[in-house]
């Protein structure tokens, strides 16, 4: 899975980020481990990877997909991420009907609306031969936050975390996801693990390595 997504990054990085039309919504998606078995035959596995990549390329060209990359989840459940732009969630499942990983339940696709400005993704043409290690930050409250808590936490993140792309997924106050350029994470952990909500154990913070095309995300400097 990881090798397939890395190859996808190289292919997609030769293209500019296709910004969606104004009437679409943004969804954040995880590819997660399914209950299907991976092929043991190397040739069959490579063919599945090619078909998987071809489908993602197709969605990118159709402006349904604007970013993707593999991640190193300690639980080995979440395999990669996607940022999708569609009119509604009913469009998403059909996008992966021909993806062999999804078709054979080797992976499934979990998605939720994402409150984020996709124009923040770097529109500069990246180096097609370069991949960089980044960080994804996942914030999960123990229970849904109240509106004042949401507003206070958003203000705290804005004031302490360096430049990135992110916001709440699904219902505000239930989970937030942020993407940051580069592998440095000490300042991210300091920012997201500071403040009263983390201090009293109201939120869980995960900082996980993520690989994407170089310069796909805004520089933090």
Overall shape: globular
Instruction: Give the number of DSSP strands.
Output: 8
Q: How much helical structure, as a percent, in the residues?
A: 25-40%
Q: Give the quaternary arrangement of the chains.
A: single chain
The strand order across the widest sheet is 2-3-1-4
Count of discrete alpha- or pi-helical segments spanning 4 or more residues = 7
Biggest beta-sheet profile: 4 strands, antiparallel
CATH superfamily of the largest domain: Dimeric alpha+beta barrel
Structural class: alpha+beta
The appropriate CATH architecture of the largest domain is 2-Layer Sandwich
Blueprint of the fold:
Blueprint: H1 2-12, E1 25-33, H2 42-61, E2 65-70, E3 78-86, H3 92-95, H4 100-103, E4 107-113, E5 131-141, H5 147-160, E6 165-168, E7 176-180, H6 186-192, H7 196-199, E8 203-213
Antiparallel strand pairs: 1-3, 1-4, 2-3, 5-7, 5-8, 6-7
Give an overview in words.
The protein has 221 residues and is of the alpha+beta class. The protein has 2 domains: 2-119, Dimeric alpha+beta barrel (Alpha-Beta Plaits); 126-213, Alpha-Beta Plaits (2-Layer Sandwich). The protein has 7 helices and 8 strands. Strands 2-3-1-4 form a 4-stranded antiparallel sheet.
Which key features would you list for this structure?
Alpha-Beta Plaits, 221 residues, globular, 8 strands, alpha+beta, 2 domains, 29% helix
Summarize this entry quickly.
With 221 residues, the protein is an alpha+beta fold. The protein is built from seven helices and eight strands, in the order αβαββααββαββααβ.
